[in-house]
Amino acid sequence: MNDIRNIVILTGAGISAESGLRTFRAEDGLWEDHPVEEVATPQGFRRDPDLVQRFYDERRSGILAAQPNPAHDALARLDRAWDGELLIVTQNIDDLHERAGAARVLHMHGEGLSAWCTVCDARHSWTGTLRDNPPCPSCGQAALRPDIVWFGEMPYRMDEIFAALSRADLFVSIGTSGAVYPAAGFVQGAKEAGAATLELNLERSQGSHWFDETRLGPASMLVPQWVE
Ligand SMILES: CC(C)NC(=O)[C@H](Cc1c[nH]c2ccccc12)NC(=O)[C@H](CCCC/N=C(/NCCC(=O)O)S[C@H]1O[C@H](COP(=O)(O)OP(=O)(O)OC[C@H]2O[C@@H](n3cnc4c(N)ncnc43)[C@H](O)[C@@H]2O)[C@@H](O)[C@H]1O)NC(=O)OCc1ccccc1
Question: Where is it localised (predicted)?
Answer without folding.
Answer: Cytoplasm
